[in-house]
């Protein structure tokens, strides 16, 4: 369905959005944006208190929000969580695969456990959540939207911390996004990704002096991003405003990767 009213194209009333890894930082900011557009939002985290606290914060702002515990790297737990959401909140119209981890370490010193942890969350988590929810979207005739958390790390080598596993995992997310977009388009499902640059979060302390030379100084805008600045981009990809977009990776990096 194509709407000719710009504001109406962004509205999400009557729809359910699931945002993984949404207890803080970028995930919480994106969940808030979707809730402000009228969506019922489900925020997941690895622990109950974290998920419930984040949901309560949005509820206090007038958003219909629910917290759920989810370990995205565990396929059985994904099935358990999504089944519960479908039974208690509703079928998911929008999935934002935000959950992710980064472990900084030199390649010679990375342990097998660290490698598996990064890929288990950043790649397997996207795979498990996307497949489980896409099955329901297809079966229920939902024109679903999936937004994956990529990164400019798929294209560059981050500094000052070495993190080869993280770079490889985000490159995989970008290609997985494109592959699923082509395969699932006939079912009315759209799959896109965002590739943030240097944003200030608990996971990415880019306000510290050691980051400035490599992360902030080369950015044309000469600043880091704030989590709230991702909200409008995710709103675009999660709504009918992007009805003719699928397989896209949208870069939001203040121009960092232009050089």
Would you write up a description of this structure?
The chain is of the alpha/beta class and 259 residues long. It is 42% helix and 14% strand. The protein has a seven-stranded parallel β-sheet, with helices on both faces.
Average pLDDT works out at: 96
Q: What is the global morphology?
A: globular
Terminal-residue CA separation: 39 Å
Kindly provide the radius of gyration, computed on alpha-carbon positions and rounded to a whole number of angstroms: 18 Å
- Model regions low in confidence, pLDDT < 50 over at least 5 residues: none
Order of helices and strands: HEHEHEHEHEHEHHE
GO molecular function: oxidoreductase activity, acting on the CH-OH group of donors, NAD or NADP as acceptor
Pfam families: adh_short_C2 (PF13561)
Organism: Leucobacter chromiisoli
Domain Ketoreductase: 15-197
Quick structural overview:
With 259 residues, the protein is of the alpha/beta class. It has helices at residues 6-10, 25-36, 48-59, 75-88, 112-140, 164-184, 209-216, 231-238; strands at 16-19, 40-45, 65-69, 94-97, 145-149, 190-196, 249-252. The protein contains eight helices and seven strands, in the order H-E-H-E-H-E-H-E-H-E-H-E-H-H-E.
Give the arrangement of secondary structure elements.
Layout: H1 6-10, E1 16-19, H2 25-36, E2 40-45, H3 48-59, E3 65-69, H4 75-88, E4 94-97, H5 112-140, E5 145-149, H6 164-184, E6 190-196, H7 209-216, H8 231-238, E7 249-252
Parallel strand pairs: 1-2, 1-4, 2-3, 4-5, 5-6, 6-7
Helix pairs in contact: 2-8, 4-5, 5-6
């Amino acid at each position: 369905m194509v709407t000719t009213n710009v504001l109406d194209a962004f509205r999400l009333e009557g729809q359910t959005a699931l945002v993984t890894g949404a207890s803080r930082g970028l995930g919480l900011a994106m969940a808030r944006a979707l809730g402000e557009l009228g969506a019922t939002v489900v925020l997941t985290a690895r622990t109950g208190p974290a998920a419930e606290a984040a949901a309560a914060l949005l509820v206090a702002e007038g958003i219909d929000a629910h917290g759920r515990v989810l370990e995205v790297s565990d396929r059985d737990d994904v099935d358990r969580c999504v089944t519960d959401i479908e039974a208690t909140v509703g079928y998911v119209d929008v999935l934002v695969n935000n959950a992710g981890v980064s472990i900084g370490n030199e390649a010679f010193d990375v342990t097998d456990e660290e490698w598996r942890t990064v890929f288990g969350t950043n790649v397997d988590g996207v795979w498990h959540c996307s497949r489980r929810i896409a099955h329901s979207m297809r079966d229920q005739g939902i024109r679903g939207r999936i937004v994956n958390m990529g990164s400019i790390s798929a294209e560059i080598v981050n500094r000052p911390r070495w993190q080869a596993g993280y770079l490889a995992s985000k490159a995989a997310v970008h290609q997985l996004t494109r592959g699923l977009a082509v395969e699932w388009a006939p079912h009315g499902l759209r799959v896109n990704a965002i590739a943030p640059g240097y944003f200030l979060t608990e996971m990415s302390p880019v306000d510290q002096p050691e980051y400035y030379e490599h992360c902030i100084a080369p950015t044309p805008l000469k600043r880091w991003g704030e989590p709230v600045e991702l909200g409008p981009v995710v709103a675009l990809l999660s709504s009918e405003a992007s009805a003719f977009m699928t397989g896209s990776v949208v870069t939001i990096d203040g121009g960092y990767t232009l050089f």
